[in-house]
Amino acid sequence: MAFGRRRQAEEPAKGAEVTEEPAETAEEAPAEAESATGGPWDSADSFPEMQRLDFGCIRVPVAPGLGFQVNLEPTQVDDDGNPLDARPVAVLVQYEESAMQLQAFAAPKRSGIWDDVRRETAKDIQEEAQGQTQEGEGPFGPELLAMVPAALTEEVLAEMPPEVREQIPEEFVEQGWAPQIIRFLGVDGPRWFLQAVVQGAAIEDEEQWQVLEDVLRGVVVHRGDAPMPPRDLLELQIPKEFSEAGEEEEEEAVQTFAPFERGPEITEVR
């Protein structure tokens, strides 16, 4: 199988809206997070200074055209299932018609987990999502491409911008689904694992992908010293800039922040 280039999860993703619980691998030396051309970086490294948003366990570069969103997971619900409280579980970086979801996890001291995560992600996509997968080599090492059926319900279509809706072939609309390509990238660092899930135009648009790649290379991961089981999600925090934006706009903007003018907003990773 070959296809184009290239879940809000509490653990490393395994597909569109993915979660998984892979087992710890045997002792092996983890891959270096830092490459000859940049990061992602460990907070103990000597990394380039640039403007970054501080999300706690990850610090993400800011650049013109980027938008940011924090994906939340309910921690308490009422009797009707409505969320009463929530915690941040992922950072979504938005650029034009593209999105990249970032999550950081604890990892064993002497071994990386990306090889196991990648294999299990592929298995789950094939068995549970009825999708197809293909491994490849990318700028950060081994990566995974997945092609999964994405629902095109009337509700989904109604939420799409008209210019996006017009580009969908009528045959997909009639059958109620369309093939969607998702790109999974992973970086094993010192006692942490960083996962990036890319969707949208950046799958094939080199210019949009280059912007997201530069963001990923500039990410700084702060693991902290506290002991944590491998695969546990490192703690994310909502930057003060989000709350300040909400106060200025008098709306629920705690989850979304755009330091510069940005393109069309993508509200979730599907």
Give a brief rundown of this model.
The chain is an alpha+beta fold and 270 residues long. The chain has 6 helices and 12 strands. The chain has one domain: Protein Transport Mog1p, Chain A (3-Layer(aba) Sandwich), CATH 3.40.1000.
Give the tags.
disordered C terminus; Protein Transport Mog1p, Chain A; 12 strands; alpha+beta; eight-stranded antiparallel sheet; four-stranded mixed sheet
Characterization of this structure:
The chain has a single domain (41-76, 86-257), classed as Protein Transport Mog1p, Chain A (3-Layer(aba) Sandwich), CATH 3.40.1000. A hairpin with a 5-residue loop joins strand 4 and strand 5 (83-95). The protein is an alpha+beta fold and 270 residues long. Helix content is 20%, strand content 32%. It is globular, with a radius of gyration of 18 Å. The chain has an eight-stranded antiparallel sheet, sandwiched between helices. Strands 1-11-3-2 form a four-stranded mixed sheet.
Report the helical percentage: 10-25%
- What number is the mean pLDDT? 79
User: Alpha-carbon distance between the termini?
Assistant: 23 Å
| SSE pattern, N- to C-terminal | EEEEEEHEEHHHEEHEHE
CATH fold call: Protein Transport Mog1p, Chain A
> What's the overall geometry?
globular
Rg of Cα set: 18 Å
Q: Taking strands numbered 1, 2, ... along the chain, how are they ordered across the largest sheet?
A: 7-8-9-10-6-5-4-12
Tally of domains: 1
Largest sheet: 8 strands, antiparallel
* Low-pLDDT stretches: 1-9, 14-36, 247-254, 258-270
Determine the number of helices (DSSP H or I, runs of at least 4 residues).
6
Class from helix and strand fractions:
alpha+beta
CATH class: Alpha Beta
Provide the β-strand percentage band: 25-35%
State the total count of DSSP E strands: 12
CATH architectural name: 3-Layer(aba) Sandwich
